[in-house]
Write a structure and sequence with these properties.
The structure holds two protein chains of two kinds.
Chain A lengths: L2 H20 L6 H12 L4 H27 L2
Chain B lengths: L1 H24 L12 H16 L9 H14 L3 H17 L6 H19 L36 H16 L4 H11 L9 E3 L4 E3 L8 H30 L7 H28 L18 H7 L1 H16 L5 H11 L5 H14 L1 H13 L11 E3 L7 H4 L1 E3 L10 H19 L6 H12 L13 H26 L2 H11 L5 H15 L8 H14 L7 H5 L1 E5 L8 H4 E5 L11 H31 L14 H50 L3 H18 L7 H41 L3 H13 L11 H36 L7 H9 L4 H5 L4
Classes of the chains: A mainly alpha, B mainly alpha.
Chain lengths: ~70, ~850
C-alpha cells in the first residue's frame, strides 16, 4: 500500500475507533479493523454483531469454566 | 483473482476475529489461546453458522439515517456533547474515509454492538425481580421481545422456555411483521395497494385479505386505519374528476376554489404521511429472534398519529359527497351548513376552506356593488340578468336567483345588493349618467383596506354588509338626485296631475268649451289633427301656456279605438308621453290606469259642464209673469209648476254632482297627491318611489269608485250621468220652447200696437217660421199648444225626476256598504241632513 492510502486507512480507523469509543462498544483497535475489513467484504453487519455478542457471551461461560480449569493444577 | 483473494481473506479474517474476541474474554493472567483447542473450533464453527444464517440486512442501507438515530439515542441518554462529537466524527468519516467502502455497514455495526452491550448491562425485565444485579431500568421494549436473551439465574430455565414458546406461537400467528403492515397501511392511506392490504371494490374498503394470517385484533386495527384510505380515494377522485371537467366549463369558479383548497389540505396530509414513513423506516432494531421489531412506529402509534387527519378527511369526504352536484353559491351554502359545528378543530378547518371557496363569490359581489358588472361565466352568482328593453330594466332586468344564494347572506342583504347594482346599471343605461363612478370610488376610498380584493371574505359578513350599505346609500342618493334634478320627476308628476287628472281647471274649461261641439259628432268623423289644434288653442288660452315647453310637448290627444255608434265623447282622451328613464315609473299599465281615471273625470266634468250650461239657460229669469199675463191661468200655473219642477230637479242633481266633484277633487286627488309628495320626500331609492307612486294611483282608483270592489257602484253612477245628460237636453228643450212661447207672446201682443216694429220683427219671426207654425194660429191655439207642450214637458220631467231619484237612492244606499272608509265621507256629504235617509228608511 502506498503511504497515501495507508494514511487514509489509518485516519479512517482512528475515526471509527473514536466513534466506537463514544458508543462504548468495548472493541479495541485491532478487532475493529478486522470487523471493518469484513464489512468491506460484504458481510452482513447484523451477523457480525451477532458473532461479537455470542462470542462475548462465551466469555462468561469460559470465564466461569476457567476458574474450574484454573483450579486444576 | 481479487475475488478469490477476497474469498480467501474471509475465513482468515473470521478466524482472526474469533481469536481476538476470545482472547479478549480471557482473564489477564491466563495462557494464550490455542487456536486448535476444541472450544476455539466450536466457537469458530458457531461464528460461521451465524454469519451464514443472515445474509441480508433487514434495514435499508442509509448511513445518514442510522447516524441520526445514534445521535438521537445519545441525546436521549443525556450525552449531548458526545452526540455532537459523534456527529462531527461521522461527517469526517463519511467524507474522508475512502478506504472504507461500506460505511453504513460499519456504522450500523457499531450501533448494534453498542446497543447490545448496553442492553446486556441493563438487562433485567420487570418480570424477574429476583435477579441479584437487576436494576429496574426504564426501557421501552415489550419484555417478551427480549425473552430469549435473558440472563436469568433460573436453574431450569422454565420462564425462558415459556417465553420462547410464546414467541414461537406469536410468530406463528403473525405471518406478517408489524412493520410491514405499518408500511402497507401508510400506502393505503395514499390510496395505493400495499403488499398485504388491498382495496376490495365490492365492499369499498381496504382490508387484509383472509388468505393472510393475521390475528383479529391486528386485522381490525388495520381496517379502521384504512378507512382513511377509502376517504382519501373519494376526495382525490372528486378532485381529479373536477379537474377533468374544467375545460368543459361545467365546474364553476367556486368549484375550482373548492378543489384547490382540498388539494392544499391533501398536501398537508401528504407531508404528515411522509414524516410518518420516515419514522417507520427508522427502526430500533434488535438482533433478536423476536417476532416484531421494536419499531418506533407500531400500528397503535400510527392510530394515534392518524386520528386528526381522519377527522379532517372525513369532513372532506362528506363535503365532497354533498357538493358533487352543486355549483356556485349553492355549493358555498352547503359547505357553510357543515361549518356550523362546535368542535374548534372542525370549525377552524371549515373556516379556512370556506374562505377560499367564497373568495370568488365575494369578489363578484364587490364588483356588482361597486361597478354594476356581472362577471359570471359559470352562472354561479345569485343575481341573474336578462336583456330587456330600457324601460323594463329596473323591474325585470335583474333578479335574484334563490338557489344560488348562500346561506350566510341574508335575503335582505341580497335585496340591497341587487338594488345597488341595479341602480348602477339603470344610471348607466337609462340615464346615461357617469356620475355614479364617483360615488363608487368614494365608497372605495372610505372603506380603504377592507375593500381591496380579497380583503373581506367569508366570516366577515358584517364587513360585506357595511360595504354594501355604504355603496347603496351613495348610489341611491345619486340616483334620486339624477331622477329629481335632471329628469324633473316631480315636475312631471305634477304635470300629469294637472293635465291628465284635470287639475288645471281653466285649461279644462276652455278645452271642454272648444272641443265639446266636436265631440258630439260620431267618432269616425272626428279627426285627431283638428282636436290637436283645438288642444293647442286651449293651452294657449289658459294659464297652461306658462308651463315648461318640454312638458307641454308631451301632452297629446289620443283617440281610442272606437266602434260604430260611438260618439266622440267616448273615445277622446289625453295622453302624456314619458320617456326614458321616467317610463320606468310610468309604464304602459300605469298609463292605462291614468287613462281610465281620465275618462271618468272627463265624464264627470262633462256632466258638470252640461249642468252649468243648463244653469246658464235657466238663470236669466226673464220669464217674468208679465209676458204671460195673457195666458190662461191654468196654463200659467202649468208653466210655473213645470219651471219649478225643472229647477228643483236641477238643484237636486246639482247638489249630487257638485258634492261628487268636490269629493273627487279634494278628498281623493289632492289628499293622495299630498301623501305622494310627502313620500317622495322621504324616498330613499327608486324602489321606494315606485311603491309610493303605486300607492298613489291605487288609492285614487279605489276612492273614485273605479276599483274592482265598486264596480256596481260605478255602473249606477254612469247610468246617472246618462240620465243627467238626458235631463239637460230636456231642460234645454223646455226652455227653448218657453222662450219661443215668450217670443210669440210678446210678438203677438205687440203686433197690434206696433205695426212698424213688427215688420222688422217679422223678419225675425220669418226665420222662426221654419220652426213652428204658430204664427198662423190665433191666440187660443197658441195657448192650447203651449199647454200641450208644457204638459208633455212636465210628464218628461216627472219621468226623469222619478228615475233620477230612484237611481240616486240606489247609489246612496250602496255607499255605506262599501269597504273604503273615504266613501263614507261621500255619503256624509250627499246626505248631510239625512234627507234621503228619512225619505227611504231602508238606508
Amino acid at each position: 500500500m502506498d503511504p497515501e492510502a495507508a494514511r487514509t486507512a489509518r485516519e479512517s480507523l482512528d475515526l471509527a475507533f473514536h466513534m466506537s469509543n463514544i458508543l462504548d462498544t468495548g472493541l479495541d483497535r485491532h478487532t475493529l479493523s478486522v470487523l471493518i475489513a469484513l464489512c468491506d467484504l460484504g458481510v452482513n453487519p447484523e451477523a457480525l454483531a451477532a458473532v461479537v455478542k455470542e462470542l462475548r457471551k462465551e466469555k462468561t461461560s469460559l470465564s466461569s469454566s476457567l476458574p474450574a480449569a484454573s483450579s486444576l493444577p | 483473482m481479487e475475488e478469490e483473494e477476497d474469498q480467501q481473506k474471509l475465513p482468515d479474517l473470521v478466524k482472526e476475529l474469533v481469536q481476538r474476541l476470545l482472547s479478549q474474554n480471557l482473564p489477564p493472567n491466563s495462557p494464550p489461546l490455542n487456536p486448535n483447542s476444541p472450544e476455539f473450533i466450536n466457537s469458530l464453527r458457531y461464528a460461521h453458522r451465524i454469519l451464514s444464517s443472515r445474509l441480508t440486512p433487514s434495514v435499508a442501507p442509509d448511513a445518514a439515517a442510522i447516524a441520526d438515530s445514534i445521535k438521537r439515542r445519545l441525546a436521549a441518554h443525556a450525552r449531548s456533547s458526545e452526540a455532537l462529537s459523534f456527529a462531527d466524527l461521522f461527517s469526517k468519516f463519511a467524507h474522508k474515509a475512502q478506504s472504507v467502502n461500506n460505511k453504513w455497514a460499519v456504522i450500523y455495526l457499531l450501533k448494534i454492538i453498542s446497543e447490545d452491550r448496553h442492553h446486556s448491562h441493563h438487562q433485567p425485565p420487570p418480570l424477574l425481580p429476583n435477579l441479584a444485579f437487576s436494576q429496574p431500568a426504564t426501557h421501552h421494549h415489550k419484555p417478551w421481545t427480549n425473552g430469549a436473551l435473558l440472563i436469568s439465574k433460573d436453574p431450569d430455565n422454565r420462564r425462558d422456555v415459556a417465553f420462547r414458546d410464546f414467541v414461537a406461537f406469536v410468530r406463528e400467528e403473525n405471518e406478517v411483521s408489524e412493520e410491514a403492515l405499518v408500511r402497507d397501511v401508510l400506502y393505503a392511506c395514499q390510496g395505493v395497494d400495499g403488499k398485504f392490504v388491498k382495496f376490495e371494490s365490492e365492499s369499498k374498503r381496504y382490508a387484509v385479505p383472509d388468505s393472510v394470517r393475521v390475528p383479529r385484533a391486528t386485522r381490525s386495527i388495520v381496517h379502521s386505519l384504512c378507512e382513511l384510505g377509502v376517504l382519501f380515494r373519494n376526495v382525490s377522485g372528486y378532485i381529479s374528476q373536477s379537474m377533468d371537467r374544467f375545460p368543459a366549463e361545467d365546474v364553476g369558479t367556486v368549484g375550482q376554489a373548492f378543489c384547490s383548497a382540498l388539494q392544499d389540505e391533501l398536501s398537508e396530509y401528504y407531508k404528515l404521511l411522509a414524516v410518518l414513513e420516515a419514522q417507520s423506516s427508522n427502526p430500533i432494531p434488535l438482533v433478536s429472534e423476536s417476532a416484531t421489531s421494536g419499531n418506533y412506529l407500531s400500528l397503535r402509534r400510527l392510530a394515534v398519529w392518524l386520528a386528526e387527519p381522519m377527522v379532517k378527511m372525513r369532513l372532506m369526504a362528506d363535503l365532497v359527497e354533498k357538493c358533487r352536484v352543486l355549483r356556485g353559491g349553492a355549493m358555498a351554502g352547503a359547505i357553510h351548513l357543515h361549518a356550523q359545528h362546535g368542535d374548534p378543530l372542525v370549525h377552524e378547518f371549515m373556516r379556512r376552506l370556506l374562505q377560499r371557496v367564497c373568495s370568488s363569490l365575494f369578489e363578484m359581489v364587490r364588483r356588482w356593488v361597486l361597478e354594476g358588472e356581472l362577471e359570471d361565466i359559470f352562472a354561479e352568482f345569485f343575481i341573474v340578468g336578462q336583456p330587456v328593453k330600457a324601460e323594463s330594466l329596473w323591474r325585470e332586468g335583474y333578479r335574484l336567483h334563490d338557489a344560488m344564494l348562500p346561506l350566510f347572506i341574508s335575503p335582505s342583504l341580497a335585496q340591497r345588493i341587487l338594488r345597488t347594482g341595479k341602480s348602477i346599471n339603470f344610471l348607466r343605461v337609462c340615464c346615461e349618467d357617469r356620475g355614479w363612478a364617483d360615488a363608487a370610488t368614494e365608497v372605495v376610498d372610505d372603506k380603504g383596506a377592507a375593500s381591496r380584493r380579497g380583503g373581506f371574505g367569508y366570516g366577515e359578513t358584517d364587513t360585506l354588509e357595511f360595504l354594501v350599505d355604504e355603496a347603496a346609500k351613495r348610489i341611491d342618493k345619486h340616483l334620486l338626485d339624477v331622477i329629481f334634478k335632471r329628469y324633473k320627476f316631480k315636475e312631471h308628476c305634477l304635470a300629469i296631475k294637472r293635465y291628465l287628472l284635470l287639475g288645471q281647471g281653466d285649461f279644462v274649461q276652455y278645452l271642454m268649451d272648444i272641443v265639446g261641439p266636436e265631440l258630439s259628432e260620431p267618432a269616425n268623423t272626428i279627426s285627431s289633427f283638428k282636436l290637436s289644434g283645438l288642444l293647442e288653442t286651449a293651452i294657449r288660452a289658459s294659464n297652461a301656456q306658462y308651463d315648461d315647453p318640454d312638458i307641454l310637448d308631451r301632452l297629446r290627444v289620443k283617440m281610442m279605438p272606437h266602434e260604430s255608434g260611438d260618439r266622440g265623447w267616448d273615445v277622446f282622451s289625453l295622453e302624456y308621453d314619458a320617456r326614458v328613464p321616467l317610463d320606468t315609473v310610468f309604464t304602459e299599465s300605469v298609463m292605462a290606469r291614468y287613462l281610465r281615471i281620465f275618462n271618468f273625470l272627463w265624464k264627470l266634468r262633462r256632466v258638470e259642464h252640461a249642468l252649468t250650461g243648463t244653469w246658464k239657460t235657466m238663470k236669466p229669469n226673464c220669464i217674468t209673469s208679465n209676458s204671460f199675463t195673457r195666458l190662461q191661468h191654468a196654463v200659467k200655473m202649468q208653466l210655473v209648476s213645470t219651471l219649478r219642477r225643472c229647477q228643483v230637479l236641477w238643484v237636486e242633481i246639482n247638489h249630487f254632482i257638485s258634492n261628487l266633484q268636490y269629493y273627487i277633487m279634494f278628498e281623493v286627488l289632492e289628499v293622495s297627491w299630498s301623501n305622494f309628495v310627502s313620500e317622495m320626500e322621504v324616498a330613499e331609492d327608486l324602489d321606494d318611489l315606485l311603491a309610493a307612486h303605486e300607492k298613489y294611483l291605487h288609492s285614487i282608483v279605489e276612492k273614485s269608485l273605479l276599483g274592482e270592489l265598486s264596480q256596481s257602484l260605478s255602473k249606477s253612477l254612469f247610468v246617472i250621468f246618462d240620465l243627467i245628460l238626458r235631463f239637460r237636453s230636456r231642460a234645454d228643450r223646455l226652455y227653448e220652447g218657453i222662450h219661443e212661447l215668450q217670443a210669440r207672446m210678446t210678438e203677438s201682443s205687440s203686433s197690434s200696437r206696433d205695426q212698424n216694429k213688427s215688420r222688422t220683427r217679422k223678419q225675425l219671426t220669418d226665420k222662426s217660421a221654419e220652426q213652428g207654425s204658430w204664427i198662423a194660429d190665433g191666440r187660443k191655439a197658441l195657448t192650447q199648444r203651449a199647454g200641450e207642450f208644457l204638459r208633455n214637458m212636465g210628464q218628461d220631467l216627472d219621468a226623469i225626476a222619478k228615475e233620477y231619484s230612484s237611481l240616486q237612492e240606489e247609489f246612496i244606499s250602496q255607499l255605506p256598504v262599501q269597504q273604503h272608509v273615504d266613501l263614507k265621507f261621500l255619503f256624509f256629504r250627499l246626505d248631510f241632513n239625512e234627507f234621503y235617509r228619512r225619505l227611504c228608511p231602508s238606508m
